[in-house]
């Protein structure tokens, strides 16, 4: 749970599918830590059984506009966003996050992990591709005691993988996502207000605009 549109929609989807939901967020040294408050709000609003925050510090490696003293790109058009892997990519972030989720799932003896990766928006992110998710799932079933003993076969669900941002907004609306509690900005003001100009803000606005739904 990042507290953003995608992960919150995933939580709403999981709830509709009948899962008992254990939400996991990360305090990883990101410059937009306001997202952790948004994650808390949305997890509570959507009835998560439990919400935990794992504290790690990816600033030790840096090399991302989210964890280093690097300017967040602003006012870019879609062609610029998709031209190369953006500087907002955090090295190996989803691999690290999924490893923490896998550890908690093993403790809970849970068979399902849900992650809000998307292969359409930010298609350059290497850890959002379907082949990556398939490879991680295969590895996960080899790496855990419950998997080796055959007690649990882990499945990684990616309900948003092939959806456009507009489709995600529509799905969220159908599932009753409280959009006003979510936060998507990569470079919020000190008061936590979205900048309105980073890639994430622009894609969010485009998604709501194309879906014909107000972002409230």
Quick description:
This protein is mainly alpha-helical.
Could you characterize the architecture of this molecule?
This protein has 216 residues and is mostly helical. Helices cover 40% and strands 8% of the residues. The protein has a single domain (5-211), classed as Rossmann fold (3-Layer(aba) Sandwich). It is built from eight helices and four strands; from the N terminus they run αβαβααβααβαα. It has a two-stranded parallel sheet. Strands 3-4 form a two-stranded parallel ribbon. Strand 1 (22-27), helix 2 (34-45) and strand 2 form a beta-alpha-beta unit. The radius of gyration is 17 Å and the shape is globular.
What's the topology here?
Layout: H1 5-16, E1 22-27, H2 34-45, E2 50-55, H3 78-81, H4 93-108, E3 112-114, H5 130-143, H6 145-148, E4 155-157, H7 165-175, H8 199-211
Parallel strand pairs: 1-2, 3-4
Give, in order, the helices and strands: HEHEHHEHHEHH
Number of domains: 1
Main sheet makeup: 2 strands, parallel
Task: Quote the distance from N terminus to C terminus.
Answer: 20 Å
Architecture (CATH level 2) name: 3-Layer(aba) Sandwich
**DSSP, total strands:** 4
Low-confidence stretches: none
| Spatial shape | globular
What's the total helix number?
A: 8
The helix content is 25-40%
Q: What CATH first level would be assigned? A: Alpha Beta
Strand content: 5-15%
Structural class: mainly alpha
Give the CATH H-level superfamily: HUPs
And the CATH topology?
Rossmann fold
Neighbour order of strands in the largest sheet: 1-2
């Amino acid at each position: 749970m990042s507290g953003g549109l995608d992960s919150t929609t995933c939580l709403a989807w999981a709830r509709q599918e009948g899962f008992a939901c254990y939400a996991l967020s990360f305090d990883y040294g990101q410059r937009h830590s306001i997202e952790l408050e948004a994650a808390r709000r949305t997890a509570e609003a959507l009835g998560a059984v439990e919400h935990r925050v794992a504290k790690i510090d990816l600033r030790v490696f840096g090399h991302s506009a989210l964890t280093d003293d690097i300017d967040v790109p602003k006012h870019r058009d879609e062609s610029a966003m998709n031209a190369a892997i953006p500087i907002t990519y955090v090295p190996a972030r989803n691999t690290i996050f999924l490893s923490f989720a896998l550890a908690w799932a093993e403790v809970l003896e849970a068979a399902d992990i849900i992650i809000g990766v998307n292969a359409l928006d930010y298609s350059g992110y290497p850890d959002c591709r379907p082949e990556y998710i398939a490879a991680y799932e295969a590895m996960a079933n080899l790496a855990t005691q419950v998997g080796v003993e055959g007690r649990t076969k882990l499945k990684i669900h990616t309900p948003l993988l092939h959806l456009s941002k507009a489709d995600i907004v529509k799905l969220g609306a159908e599932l009753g996502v409280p959009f006003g509690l979510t936060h998507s900005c990569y470079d919020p003001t000190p008061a936590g207000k979205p900048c309105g100009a980073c890639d994430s803000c622009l894609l969010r606005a485009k998604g709501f605009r194309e879906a014909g739904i107000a972002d409230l």
